[in-house]
Specification:
By secondary structure, this protein is α/β, with parallel strands linked by helices. About 40% of the residues lie in helices and about 10% in strands. A hairpin with a 6-residue loop joins strand 4 and strand 5.
Length: about 200
């Protein structure tokens, strides 16, 4: 996405180099003018178009993860739908009746349901949001900090999600960021992982 975004955006000066991350590309483009919100909307619109128009293959590790049937609650720390696509393909052959997706956003904080019926469904909570022109999501590291601040504040905190994570055994997979929830306070913290 970062490589395609770099090529598709109109840069008045030299764009970031070929190895730039999505955060680096988006941040550089947003800082180009005195109106960063306008630039952010342009980047978001372009990413939304890229994700809609490009059939990214579902990664094999996500398909393998979806095969582990006892896992029913997933916290997604990306803004794409690859995890959801893997679960729908492997578990339900595209039929979404036993599947529920939640999207966190600072301006509309969805929370999971804890009813017995809901607990039987496979649920994906998109904690950092989903690509959208109308709802904020974590595109850059700066956005990530804002998201962490919002989802920990009382009015916008997904309380049911945090309670469920607090009572559950957790499995963290992948690189980048992971969510840690304190069993004593129920507060969450985002931690960035690095590889040597």
């Amino acid at each position: 996405v970062a490589r395609r975004l770099t090529a598709d955006l109109s840069w008045p000066e030299a764009p970031p180099g070929p190895g730039a991350t999505l955060n680096e590309v988006a941040s550089a483009f947003i800082r180009l003018t005195a109106d960063p919100e306008r630039q952010r909307k342009a980047v978001s619109k372009e990413i939304e178009r890229l994700l809609r128009d490009t059939e990214f293959p579902t990664p094999t590790p996500l398909l393998q993860l979806a095969e582990i049937a006892p896992l029913r609650l997933f916290v997604n720390l990306t803004f794409d739908d690859l995890l959801e696509r893997a679960l729908l393909k492997v578990r339900y052959d595209g039929d979404a009746r036993q599947f529920q997706s939640y999207v966190y956003s600072a301006n509309r904080a969805e929370d999971i349901e804890l009813t017995p019926e809901a607990m039987q469904k496979t649920r994906v909570y998109n904690l950092l949001g989903r690509v959208s022109a109308s709802r904020p999501y974590a595109l850059t590291e700066e956005d990530l900090l804002e998201h962490v601040r919002y989802f920990q504040s009382e009015p916008t905190r997904p309380r049911n999600l945090f309670d469920e994570l607090n009572r559950s055994n957790l499995l963290f997979l992948g690189g980048g960021y992971y969510l840690a929830v304190s069993h004593k306070t129920g507060r969450a913290v985002m931690v960035k992982c690095g590889y040597p």
